[in-house]
Amino acid sequence: MATNATARRPQWVWECAEWPQFTWAAERISAALGRARRAQGEILAVAQILDDKSSLATQLEVLTREGLTTSAIEGEKLDPQALRSSIARRLGLPTAGLPHPSRSVDGLVEVLLDATQHYRDPLTLKRLNGWQAALFPTGRSGLHEIRVGKLRGRAPMQIVSGPIGRERIHYVAPPHDQLNIEMRTFLHWFNHPPDALDGLLRAGLAHAWFEIIHPFEDGNGRVGRAVLDMALAQDEHRSTRFYSMSGRFMDVRDEYYTALENASSGNLDVTGWLVWFLEQVEAAAGINGSVLETVVEKARFWMQHASDQLNARQLKALNRMLDAGRNGFEGGMTNKKYASLTRASPATAQRDLSDLVGKRCLTLIGSGRATHYELATGVPPR
């Protein structure tokens, strides 16, 4: 006769007796780690040739993508131009013609920049609370009032999907009473990681661990991805970002949620999560390499034409073509497109375009109705 009830198997990873002693199979990770390191090294090597102006332009592009996508993952759509305005102002870049950003956009940018520009500073609970508060300057998430700048309250923290009455519980976070010890343990590990732990593995573990704790009422995803960016900056020993992990996560959002859900359930073996994460680092560095190359080509173009006297219309059109890349401006520039883009008359558009051809900024292609203009320098495909 049984005298004790069968012990319940842990449903969530934090219920395991050995929590938070994560384990992984190094032999299953090594190939993915090598590929991620190679991609990371290649993009950082390209970044070495950037001058200060080009480096700032690259940061603007990558941070804009990071801000847009870390918000989009949570279903929030930001105004790209307002986000660009906030980032440009903090980087000391021109903001003429850009809209004034909202307090919440400014708050997000403050978080992104603090995580990377001050990566040498310790990560503390006060700092994390400040990041979360910056995301919600009104104290509300949508129409709902939330706790800001402090850990969540006693209400259970669950990640749920589906219609009312048929909800599916994807995850239940540690209860409120455990949060202080959970955060102390996490922060001590983050600030004093094991010497032998690879920096990319540490970054992947830090992100998953933070999301498992889920310490705030809202903003856990965005704060957790800022923690990831900080860990990557520490690994690379540089405050500038040249690839966007949030951008990659957004591209494979369903996979991202599934990978985190799997890491949060069952046992402490995170081999699957780490392999998946390293594959995303490899993909992110490769994807954003094209962004970096485009910025380099753009800088080279303007160095070649630094002495050309160009009007505001011409500058606007050329920048639009350079931003689009070689294959991004479909059909090339035409008289009609130029007139529409710059609000010029057809006659003025024709004069401007002819002048750009004469200055070897553009090349005239075709004749008659097929006439169009392309950049006169190589620009990488997008």
Notes on the protein architecture:
The chain has helices at residues 26-47, 52-72, 80-91, 103-117, 125-135, 179-191, 199-213, 220-236, 245-251, 253-264, 271-304, 312-324, 335-342, 346-358, and strands spanning 140-141, 144-145, 158-161, 168-172, 362-365, 372-375. Strand 3 (158-161) and strand 4 form a beta hairpin. It has 14 helices and 6 strands. Mean pLDDT is 91; it is low at 1-5. It is mainly α and 382 residues long. The protein is elongated, with a radius of gyration of 25 Å. Strands 1-2 form a two-stranded antiparallel ribbon. Helix content is 56%, strand content 5%. It has 2 domains: 13-295, Fido-like domain (Fic-like fold, Orthogonal Bundle); 308-375, Arc Repressor Mutant, subunit A, CATH 1.10.10.10.
List keywords for this structure.
382 residues; mainly alpha; Fic-like fold; Arc Repressor Mutant, subunit A; two-stranded antiparallel ribbon; elongated; disordered N terminus
Summarize the helix and strand pattern as letters.
HHHHHEEEEHHHHHHHHHEE
- The assembly state of the depicted protein chains is single chain
Tally of domains:
2
Number of helices: 14
Radius of gyration: 25 Å
CATH class of the largest domain: Mainly Alpha
Largest sheet: 2 strands, antiparallel
Termini gap: 70 Å
The proportion of residues forming helix, as a percent range, comes to: 55-70%
Apparent shape:
elongated
> What is the name of the CATH architecture of the largest domain?
Orthogonal Bundle
Beta content:
5-15%
Q: Examine the coordinates and then state which fold CATH places here, giving the name of the CATH topology of the largest domain.
A: Fic-like fold
**Number of separate strands:** 6
Mean pLDDT: 91
Unreliable spans: 1-5
CATH superfamily of the largest domain: Fido-like domain
Side-by-side strand order of the widest sheet: 1-2
Structural class: mainly alpha
